[in-house]
Design goal:
Ubiquitin-like (UB roll), Creatine Kinase, Chain A, domain 2, 2 domains, eight-stranded mixed beta sheet, five-stranded mixed beta sheet, 8 helices, Gln_synth_N_conserv_site
């Protein structure tokens, strides 16, 4: 039996990386990563190499069933024969060392270093649906004078007058579940055509890997509906919410009785490295972090209990229980989760975080 392996990786575009993928047909069955060989690609076409030395290596690191390629229609269909997989890869140089764009390799080191703290992450990925041409949010009119009514009825709304694109969202959720990803929920967001899904709680590498694959599934399924999903932190200027990737975090210490003390200590440490975190929390985040629309100003750091206008929110139930987790509300929707998780890990569990220039 033949099987299709979709090799997925993160490119080197700046300031915001994008996903790439290509298909390799393998002899099945595929039972694990050991059945998936390394593969090469043209790094000069992904902003990761020059044309004179363009060969880069894809190292498979995480694999799930491919929900976009279903059961066979005929006995001769190789791409619909079952056993097809999605394969997330790290990008390596020809000498098999990590490429400079490979932020997963750096998180891998940090996750091992601080594993004794048993860190757990949950990421709330907000995004905006656009018409296929990408010119405007899905079902929004071409002229601003005819834009939807002001924010208010859309968050967790019901009905076609308030909710745009649910068919894609339902398909995406089903695909994440079929792939075995730890999707925890979905909801319509504050701006029409804006949505959110959540991944976690998982360890640092796992949550970032699964978020990238969930993003890939969202983009791929959007092709079937003529809809593009975008991670722009401020899709529409004016009195409209931006889009973030709120990152929830806990350690063994914060989850234990009396953990609220450790949560507040973590918040104090995060405040000392605020500007370093902002450097890796997503491009154009200044357009979103304005102090309005459920954000704190990008130049300001503060934390509070139940405060969605703070940089860090300590949920009210956590404060009442005296232990649990906190939510970093600063990361933008387009953040690289490998970098966000490493920044939080190194700041809370280590000596602090220094963003690379």
């Amino acid at each position: 039996m033949k099987a299709a392996a979709e090799y997925i990786w993160i490119d080197g575009q700046k300031p915001t990386k994008k996903l790439r993928s290509k298909t390799k047909i393998l002899d099945g069955p595929i039972n694990g990563l050991s059945d998936i060989p390394m593969w090469a690609f043209d790094g000069s076409s992904t902003c990761q190499a020059g044309t004179a030395n363009s060969d880069l290596i894809l190292q498979p690191v995480f694999m799930v069933p491919d929900p976009t390629r279903g059961k066979p229609r005929t006995t001769t269909s190789c791409l619909r024969g079952g056993g097809n997989v999605l394969v997330l890869c790290e990008v390596l140089l020809p000498d098999f060392t990590p490429h400079e764009s490979n932020t997963r390799a750096k998180l891998r080191i940090a996750a091992k270093r601080y594993s004794r703290h048993k860190p757990l992450f949950g990421i709330e990925q907000e995004y905006t649906l656009y018409d296929a041409d990408g010119g405007r949010p899905f079902r929004w009119p071409k002229v601003s004078t005819a834009f939807p009514a002001p924010q208010g009825p859309y968050y967790c709304g019901i009905g076609s007058d308030e909710v745009y694109g649910r068919e894609l969202i339902e398909a995406h959720t089903a695909a994440c579940l079929k792939a075995g990803l730890a999707v925890a929920g979905t909801n319509a967001e504050v701006m029409p055509a804006q949505w959110e899904f959540q991944i976690g709680p998982l360890g640092p590498l796992e949550v970032a890997d699964e978020l990238w694959l969930a993003r890939w599934l969202l983009y791929r399924l959007g092709e079937n509906y003529g809809i593009s999903a975008k991670l722009d932190p401020k899709p529409i200027s004016g009195d409209w919410n931006g889009a973030g990737a709120h990152t929830n975090f806990s350690t063994r210490e914060t989850r234990r009785s009396g953990g609220l003390k450790h949560i507040k200590e973590a918040c104090e440490r995060l405040g000392k490295f605020h500007l370093e975190h902002i450097k890796v929390y997503g491009a154009d985040n200044d357009k979103r972090l304005t102090g309005r629309h459920e954000t704190c100003d990008i130049k300001t750091f503060r934390y509070g209990i139940g405060d969605r206008g703070a940089s860090i929110r300590i949920p009210a139930p956590v404060a009442k229980a005296g232990c649990g987790y906190f939510e970093d509300r600063r990361p933008a929707a387009n953040v690289d989760p490998y970098e966000a998780c490493r920044a939080i890990l190194e700041t809370v569990c280590g000596k602090g975080f220094k963003a690379e220039d």
